[in-house]
Specification:
homodimer, alpha/beta, Quinone Oxidoreductase, Chain A, domain 1, Rossmann fold, seven-stranded mixed sheet, six-stranded parallel sheet, 26% strand, globular
Chain lengths: 344, 344
């Protein structure tokens, strides 16, 4: 079967590998219906570490169960499932508290020895703890939206949940990629009254408005901070959802956060430090967030997709086949596509 | 009347100044019963900025109302009151949300042009918004404990509240000064099951145990981190209350915080940055806390003092008169006293 590997900066290849099989009684094997390329897949696309071996790619998938191990109770061949971006046991203390990304038996996809999910099929460890059954057919028009439950929609929502967005809040969303746009959806779901999206890309800010953004700020850094302060009587916003991960983005997030407010950070930190100095002590700024336990949010968010309340699948503005996945990487790296769907 | 001023590093003087009077209709004038020296009073004691004018000292007081302005509705001469460490209007949006330290009409004591509260009397701005009446006589044995409502007890409690200490939690408290010891009281009030106090000072750790600490860790930095990990099966604690404010203390706080946990920081930050890198994103670490809105907590904490549940007044292990206040500063700076009470 075909699977995606990265060999170096900008060097994405599709290779034939052996078909996955059940290795443990808790495994399942799924045949992919759709997968996609994540903003985080671009980290090593931009800058592949010298001397590193090839890396299996992809951690977002939706597919049909083909086989299950002897201990798998909740799934059978033919079930359509979405797979969150890490595999988690579902029974340890962290899974029970809803923090499946700290599962004591966590297994990764797309790196650290985990399977490539940008592939025609995949072995899913901890199938009962990890996978979620979908109540639609594999050709439903809702499939792209349901695929976003594997990562970006839940990641954006995690920013809003951890930051504690409440009805009536003002919210700044920093970042107009798929996670930032999902954070807009999350902030709206939590009742934000005003959502300021930092974006300088017209197609993205238009989709952001469709998702609930009330204001677009195109400036960054000091100018962007001043603009958001202007929009909020000098106070900043109650919540800031940081969906980029650069030093500039987190610095801006802290600066535009209102006294007593909070920053939910879900951008994968490329920075080492957050500027939480004496001034932020005086302002009682909270910094929260982290890698999203997508598994925890899937059942909560799925109904909004099924009933049409939200349409996160619109973020897929490019569709490729597995053979052309490298063009999807390139388009996202060039920012000509928000997010590329891989159709099998 | 006598009031305390600092002129330089280690140079604390008591001077005669004119008696305070009502300047605004919302003011009160109180005659001091007890005041005290705060750990934060030592910042400029250690390192007074060159070229700075003298600074009025003291922001914790308890006294008898002598006079009130025409608009003061809740107090009359003779009332015994405790005064939190900033004056707040009680009516703006920040005061209404319980963040009086961000009051839109905030006035400070002890610096920024505010009155010295280490003084025989003081003008209290925003009397109705700021002061809280005490249901005891001025010679009650509870007076030292009630004085801690002006700052340290509420500050320690704020760490526990913002960090979200819940029944059954494990908690690390970094710092064995009056705020750290108050954080132990706060963690216990919130139901912590295990409270690890980082302290290498015997008298302080003994009082910490009395207040609810279950474990004492005497090591700092890497050794202290390893010790706390050992005590918690390698996980760290659910909550960390940081009551020091140095880079070393906040670094340790982050390192010993359990995945999904939170750090409540109330130590006045002498650092510029908190090490919130990619690893802390993966662990979903929250950093919260800040300067405590003491006014918000006074009514909640006072009953615990009145009924004897807590005895924070035991932190005052030295009592001085106003003429000898410099000896109180020196003892605290030398760490021979936890906290000095000034008896008038």
């Amino acid at each position: 079967m075909k699977a995606t590997y990265m060999y170096g900066s900008g060097d994405v290849r599709v290779e034939n590998v052996s078909y996955p099989t059940i290795l443990k009684p808790t495994d399942a094997v799924i045949r992919t219906v759709v997968a996609c390329v994540c903003g985080s897949d671009l980290w090593d696309y931009y800058n592949f570490p010298a001397g590193r071996e090839r890396v299996a790619k992809g951690h977002e998938t939706l597919g049909l169960v083909e086989a299950v191990g002897a201990d798998v109770k909740n799934f059978k061949p033919g079930d359509l499932v979405v797979v969150p971006f890490v595999a988690s046991c579902g029974t340890c203390d962290f899974c029970q508290m809803g923090l499946q990304t700290s599962c004591r038996s966590i297994e990764f996809f797309g790196h650290d020895g985990g399977a490539a999910l940008q592939a025609e099929a995949a072995r899913i460890p901890h199938a009962d703890g990890t996978m979620v059954k979908l109540p639609v057919a594999a050709d439903s028009p809702l499939i792209p939206s349901l695929l976003t439950l594997s990562d970006v929609l839940c990641t954006g929502y995690h920013a809003a949940v951890t930051a504690g967005v409440r009805p009536g809040d003002t919210v700044t969303v920093i970042g107009d990629g798929a996670v930032g746009l999902s954070a807009v959806i999350g902030a709206k779901k939590k009742g934000a009254e005003r959502i300021i999206l930092v974006s300088r890309h017209e197609a993205r800010s238009a989709l952001g408005r469709e998702y609930g953004a009330t204001d677009i700020v195109t400036e960054r850094d000091a100018e962007g901070i001043a603009r958001i302060k202007d929009l909020t009587n000098g106070d900043g916003t109650h919540r800031v959802l940081e969906a980029v991960g650069t030093q500039s983005a987190i610095d801006m997030a802290i600066a535009v956060c209102r006294a007593g407010g909070s920053v939910g950070r879900v951008g994968a930190a490329q920075y080492q430090n957050v500027p939480l100095d004496f001034g932020t002590i005086m302002r009682n700024i909270t910094v929260t967030g982290g890698v999203a336990p997508a598994r925890h949010y899937i059942e909560e968010l799925m109904p909004d997709i099924l009933d049409g309340t939200i349409n996160p699948g619109k973020m897929f503005d490019m569709t490729v086949g597995i053979d052309d996945i490298a063009t999807g990487y390139k388009a996202m790296a060039d920012r000509t596509a928000i997010k590329a769907l891989v159709q099998f």
